[in-house]
Amino acid sequence: MVKFIDYYKVLQVDASAEPKIIEAAFRKLSSIYHPDINKDPSAEEKYKMITEAYFVLKDKEKRKKYDEIYKRFKTKATKPSKSSKKIVIPLVIVFSIIIIIFFSIFYFNYLNNKDYQVEQQDNNSSIAEQTNQSKQNEEEKIIIPSQFQLNQDLNIVIAGSGEDLLEPEVNSIIFTSYYNNRNETRSICLPVQTLMDIPGIGAELINRSVEIGGMDLLALTLEKGLGIDMQVDYYILMDISGVVDRLGGIKINLDQAYIINDYASGKTFSLEPGSNLLYGTEALNILKYFSGIERNVPLEDIIIQKKIIDSIIVKIVGEDDESFVNNLNLIKDMIDSDLNLEELLKLFSTFSKIGADKNIIYALEASSTELEGEGIVYLPDITNIAQKFSENNY
Asked: What CATH number does domain 7-77 carry, 1.10.287.110, 3.60.110.10, 3.50.50.60, 1.10.10.1020?
């Protein structure tokens, strides 16, 4: 079981502590456990954890994301134990018996008033249905912005998964920076089995960060693990199979043929050079095939994952504004994002219009090794990433 690290406990402060308290705690503990001062063999590890905690909690945005994860773990920790459940179950049984006796006493009166109750129930159901329909219509309403165009730089993580967005099986992770003044995107595709230091957890595979603390924790992991001074502003998590099927399929263009594994059936299917029409299961299998889990697939081919995501975005945008809004309405329940629908409209519209020469895609440079029980694991080489994403690199 993965152990969550409480950064507030590490710094010996309350979760509501102000920044100056956190800084003071860091300075105090550093003066005690810094390896140059404390020669105890365990001091270096303690100092490393103190530094990691301060790295996250001193930054307003990083702390905000960490607090969301912190609340989830605190909520899990306060759930009733199995022993308490054993006490609750007999109480429920006794309560149920009392209800049955009570129901029996008034059963005769119920039968006499049955017709009246049925009529009232029908009326109430009709009212509830109308109310729910009205709420649904309000929820589905998308405010159309005056222009479908981003007007700011941003960094976003886009991940693809299966249909369960609450406990997702992540098959693709792409970090993308958008440069507004050049209308350009630069993306790096990461194998899901990449080993990074997950804040609060330690060295772990990056796809596990989503399982442990959601997309917020993945964002924190990439901010620290990619070695670039960039904050992840937003995230998008997609049910790839569901989205592609709702849209009626997508098309991708390839330079060569591939034989792709269908991981559910154990069979394979072919992709041809040129245009390929894909439906949900095929798109999901392609993401998984190029996620770094296959020994015989070159890591540089992982950029095909970005082609899948780009094709989905183009299909969402459609041919006109009306189809754009309709498509987004169709799939919005299959997307988890901290962008609202209006912001998604702007992002998808902008990304869909970026030409191939401005849509720069990198594969993570990494060495691979085998770990028992994990298969292929990638050790990232982040030496050149900062340069690739530098404003001056164009």
From this structure: 1.10.287.110
